[in-house]
Design brief:
The protein has 137 residues and is α+β, with helices and mostly antiparallel strands. Helices cover 49% and strands 20% of the residues.
Amino acid sequence: MKFLISISFLVISFASIAQNEQEELRRSIYFGGGSYSIDEDQMSMLSDWLDSIPNLLDKYQIQLISHTDPIGGKEFNEWLSKMRSLSVYEILIEKDIPERFISIKDWDFENPVYSNQSRRGMWMNRRVDVILYPFVF
């Protein structure tokens, strides 16, 4: 009986975790080296994605997390990270998303998700993640 209760608890726990993970939505905007301009395709993709989410502002808080590769040094990448998140932020503001729904974290190259030891890894780190976190009531 204890075994059955333990398994039931685990199944319920995993189901809760899976449900919570499904509620977070994420898109990434990628940039060229040293650039903070967003190409038309990515602008359109971001806009279409946001438009596809019903009641966006009733359900989600938006966080922008900016990353860079290490080329150019610390000071340059701190600036570049801020400029990249600002570029995405401006798109959100143009879509009439109120400032209070948006938070920004600029990591520059301090917290890479991909290895900066390869060209592909550096390319993947040149991005802003747009993450929609559900409001917790």
